[in-house]
Amino acid sequence: MDQLLPPEAYPTVLLFTTGYGIGPVRSLIKTGFSANKRSDVRLYYGVENLQKLAYQDEFEDWEKSGVDVIPVLSDPPANWNGATGHVQNVYLKDKPIANPKAAVAVLSGNQNMIEDTKAILLAQGFSAEKILETK
């Protein structure tokens, strides 16, 4: 994904995924995009419950590579202390992006999430060509 390069020009990368959309995002993380050379890399990963949260055993490695993994459950168990609801709403409550023009977003998964997130990012000043969708 050339749109993510060079890391110095795009220090912020936001990854938004739901359900099956984790596949392409996982590939991006595993092949590497210099996450450790960026100041802010976040993965907002939304699923219904813990049983549907794929690749949990890899989260620690992803974190070590520079990706802040934020699991978001829409139907969490009573003892869940993490984020709940929809990934785009969790993002809105999170720390703001310092410079949207120096950021890239990758969206993968549920089409409603993609459309909602894209509208949010555009309203915040992201460049349309830096909001990428995986298929």
Automatic annotation (TrEMBL):
SUPFAM superfamilies given in the database record: Ferredoxin reductase-like, C-terminal NADP-linked domain
InterPro entries, alphabetized: FNR_nucleotide-bd, OxRdtase_FAD/NAD-bd
GO molecular function, one term: oxidoreductase activity
Boundaries of every Oxidoreductase FAD/NAD(P)-binding domain copy: 17-118
Highest taxon above the source species: Eukaryota
UniProt protein name: Fruit protein like
Organism: Actinidia chinensis var. chinensis
